[in-house]
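To the wet lab folks,

You asked to see what we're planning to order before we commit. Fair enough. Below is the target structure as tokens, and below that is the sequence we designed to fit it. If anything looks off to you, flag it before the synthesis order goes out.
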């Protein structure tokens, strides 16, 4: 009986506060886009057949079927979609392989989803669209990681990419409703295409800013260390990033201290004089408010010391 009351009064409230704070913190700081199963499938299909010989006729057929209604019959653009002329095959390939295109309806937000077409068809469409203009933009890259330096890649990532995608690559919501997506499922080709073409709200980085050698270092770092991290030990917490993880640590740590303080405070014996002088409304460990007199287990013989 006394034990049950002791628990409900002294522990239930702080415990509820800690649980509520941790849940709230996780909700607020949990990244908007977490790695999905769809992306895993995507990575496999993307890395498979980069040596495909493009079939422009098939590319045209697919483009006319799916893209022309919005982008125009020669990709010249329309009231609802931008021109694709002058964009390199690398840009088209990124938007198709990430599932951002085709849009379901004009005005919809491009979102990552499994690609509509397979790897070979993506390349056919991309090469066909690129062939519609004399200007050749960034092509579909062949990524070679031979001799790449992962430590250099980390420096570039920490300096340039982490500001938006976070240091763990889990992604983050930026200001203005912009989301820097998770990099946990992107392919080598997609990384190079994104860095060199700057999709949507991401800046474009030319070889003057990130050299080709630095870019392959970067790709090696993202695909080896970020996508397959070796855990340093302790609880992983899903690799959500230092802010969310710090929050969990802070509140669980502080919460345990608060609980311990309540527990110690409750076990300190108090006489009725101490209770009255401190105006402790909860009535100390006795809690029955009835009989004045020493309550503590040790028999409160020395009151002067007890209410210091
Ligand atoms: C329902 C209309 C619609 C359809 C269908 C569609 N698109 Fe788009 N597309 C858009 C809109 C709108 C944008 C601009 C999106 C944005 O920037 O947020 C866009 C943007 C793009 C971009 C990026 C352009 C740039 O300047 O960065 C590419 C590449 C693209 N589309 C390719 C395609 C391809 C290839 C297809 C067919 C497989 C296709 N789209 C089908 C509406 C459409
Ligand atoms: C200023 C913020 C910003 C910086 C810096 C930045 N990115 Fe991005 N990145 C974005 C945004 C926003 C998108 C989503 C583009 C869209 O959907 O319109 C994106 C998309 C991507 C994608 C495509 C993801 C997908 O789902 O296909 C990759 C890959 C990528 N970034 C890699 C990088 C790398 C590597 C760096 C460092 C060189 C970098 N980004 C630097 C904001 C940024």
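Sequence we intend to order:
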């Amino acid at each position: 009986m006394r034990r049950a009351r002791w628990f409900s009064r002294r522990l239930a409230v702080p415990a509820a506060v800690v649980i509520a704070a941790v849940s709230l913190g996780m909700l607020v700081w949990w990244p908007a886009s977490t790695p999905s199963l769809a992306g895993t499938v995507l990575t496999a299909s993307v890395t498979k057949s980069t040596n495909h010989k493009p079939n422009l006729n098939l590319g045209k057929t697919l483009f006319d079927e799916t893209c022309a209604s919005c982008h125009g019959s020669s990709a010249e653009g329309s009231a609802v979609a931008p021109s694709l002329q002058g964009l390199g095959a690398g840009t088209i390939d990124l938007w198709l392989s990430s599932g951002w295109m085709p849009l379901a309806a004009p005005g919809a937000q491009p979102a990552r989803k499994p690609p509509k077409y397979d790897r070979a068809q993506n390349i056919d469409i991309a090469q066909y669209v690129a062939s519609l203009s004399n200007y050749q933009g960034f092509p579909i890259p062949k990524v070679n990681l031979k001799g790449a330096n992962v430590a250099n890649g980390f420096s570039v990532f920490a300096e340039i990419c982490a500001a938006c995608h976070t240091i763990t690559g889990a992604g983050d919501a930026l200001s203005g409703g912009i989301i820097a997506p998770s990099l946990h499922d992107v392919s080598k080709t997609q990384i190079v295409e994104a860095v060199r073409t700057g999709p949507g709200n991401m800046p474009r980085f030319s070889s003057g800013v990130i050299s080709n050698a630095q870019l392959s270092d970067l790709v090696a770092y993202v695909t080896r260390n970020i996508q397959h991290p070796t855990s340093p030990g302790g609880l992983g917490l899903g690799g959500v990033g230092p802010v969310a993880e710090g929050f969990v640590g802070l509140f669980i740590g502080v919460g345990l201290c608060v609980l311990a303080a309540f527990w110690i405070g409750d076990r300190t014996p108090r006489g009725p004089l101490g209770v009255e002088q401190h105006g402790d409304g909860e009535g100390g460990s006795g809690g029955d408010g009835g009989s004045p007199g020493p309550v503590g287990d040790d028999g409160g013989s020395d009151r002067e010391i007890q209410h210091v």
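Structural context that might help your review: The CA atoms of residues 2 and 288 lie 10 Å apart. Residues 31-49, 279-296, 299-303 have pLDDT under 50 and may be disordered.

Thanks,
Computational group
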